[in-house]
Amino acid sequence: MQANTSITKKPGSSVNDAFASHFAKSMFLTIAGLLILTFIGTRMFTHVDLNLYGYMVGTIVFIGGFFYRFIAWGERPPTKLFIKKGLKLLFRKSTPKTAVNHLAIYDFIRNRGVYRWVQHILIGWGCVLAFLVTFPLVFSWMYFTMEDNGYYTIVLFGMNIMNVKADGIIAWLSYNALNIAAIMVTAGVCMALYRRLKNMQARAEQKFMYDFLPLYLLLFISITGLLLTFQNVVLHGWMQPQMSLIHQFSVIVTLIYLPFGKLAHIPFRPLSVFARNYREHYSEQHMKECKVCGDQFVSVEQSNDVIQVLDVNEIDFNMNDGFNLAELCLPCRRKYRIAKFSGFATHQVKVKEANQNANG
Amino acid sequence: MKKRLYLELENCIGCRSCLAACTQCGGHEERNRNYVYDVNPLVNRQTMPLMCLHCVNPACARSCPAQAIQIHETGAVLSALVEKCIGCQNCTIACPYGIPKFDTEQNLMYKCDLCIDRSKDGIPPMCASVCPTNTLQWLTDEEIEAKQKQFNLDNGKWVTSMPYLEGETNVKVNLPGILQGVTKLF
Ligand code: SF4
Ligand code: SF4
């Protein structure tokens, strides 16, 4: 909205002037980066796996979509603030712990229910595993060469990383990484589907396109992937090229869809680490006291940021009687509202608010 | 036909049925999202419910960095999307009425969603279906207009939304008895 009006042109020539927009520049840098990595990884394009060409195109389109979404999102005033301050606070001592908690073991989801946690671990880590294997293979950053002596060499970015025995455990794990990932995702998606069909809490809120489509997409990818292995091992490759195309298609569709639907929370989730750092850091600095009861309820910084963000949206909280709502803690704010309705100053009565949690 | 939540605050007798009903709505996971306050706790028993008023320009959603608070086509301002909420609590301090609740364990905000799976199909939200004193009602705009005539408040004190609230709201609030200085007979 107001984003485009505030750009100030600096005189003189900078590299930035070569690009039509921030968006174009980030896009250019990303694709250039991918190309360079691929150039190095493939030992100057001598080891490109053309079977995986479709994925490459899919990834590029995905990156385009992702940047588009990310920039539209990052331009919103509150998001912008969190990204800016989050980056500044990135090197807090607690960052690794928070990051592991929020992005790897999902403690907060366990608190929402163990079933949902298991399902999320299976889907989440299945996808991460698959991604970690596929991505380097697609861009040929990693590949395998076979020597005559029964050993494979894993080559990463053109460097020989290690020799593994062709029938050893590491080799087995690497051939089957995608199968393991597929089984994890399938199990997780089935759990999720079961919950969505059976659990009344979940059923009340779900929407088909938003909640089911991503699950079906993941299921489709996993099953076509597993079928590929099945055709290979049991059917001696019968119909494999066709299935491979179907699989590729499903992956590409999912990649393109990813930044726009429910799965968009994957790339955006790291912001929760920013948010935690932000809250921890600024509440150590200076807390805001409620003007009525004196309770410290939020950091001054956050309060000011919210006021500023709301100001951009033309919302302000100055009351006729000299109160500013941002100066009241939440219970006092509620009581103040009751006072506005009734004409009696409820918030001035020194009684703690009654328990507001009914037990269902 | 589009209906709204309509509050006649002074009818409230403090039974807290609305809180209990709120916990039972699908998707609320047995936690209530509304409030009932004693107006003058040390002196009398008058209570009033406090609900999310579903602002037309909701401060909670505007302050959310994750776009987790969505506005439904019916005008209802929804609870945070579980996968999107990053737990910053901006919304809780942005709301002029202090409505959104925050669960630190789950790192998740939850707030009134007008029982969206009900109200999107025209079924009243849980609170309005159970309120025994018609403090909370589910009415069409015409019915609300009729209320306005019924209470015959030509002193400009009919409270719907502006200028007594911070902004235009989808939920309409009224205090006919108090504003007329009469005691209502139920
Ligand atoms: S009353 Fe508060 S929580 Fe409800 S829509 Fe308005 S700002 Fe959001
Ligand atoms: S706590 Fe969640 S819903 Fe509230 S502003 Fe932060 S991200 Fe949005």
UniProtKB/TrEMBL annotation, chain A:
Domain of life: Bacteria
Record key words, sorted: Membrane, Transmembrane, Transmembrane helix
Gene3D superfamilies: Transmembrane di-heme cytochromes, Chain C (1.20.950.20)
Transmembrane helix keyword on record: yes
Membrane spanning residue stretches: 27-46, 52-71, 122-144, 169-194, 215-239, 245-264
SUPFAM superfamilies recorded: Respiratory nitrate reductase 1 gamma chain (SSF103501)
Name this polypeptide is given: Respiratory nitrate reductase subunit gamma
Species of provenance: Neobacillus novalis
Upper lineage: Bacteria, Bacillati, Bacillota, Bacilli, Bacillales
From TrEMBL, chain B:
InterPro entries reported for this sequence: 4Fe4S_Fe-S-bd, 4Fe4S_Fe_S_CS, ET_IronSulfur_Cluster-Binding
Top-level lineage group: Bacteria
Matching SUPFAM superfamilies: 4Fe-4S ferredoxins
Record keywords, A-Z: 4Fe-4S, Iron, Iron-sulfur, Metal-binding
Listed GO MF terms: 4 iron, 4 sulfur cluster binding; metal ion binding
One Pfam family here: Fer4_11
Segments forming domain 4Fe-4S ferredoxin-type: 3-33, 39-74, 76-105
PANTHER family (UniProt xref): PROTEIN NRFC (PTHR43177), PROTEIN NRFC HOMOLOG (PTHR43177:SF3)
Protein name: Electron transfer protein
Phylogenetic classification of the source organism: Bacteria, Bacillati, Bacillota, Bacilli, Bacillales
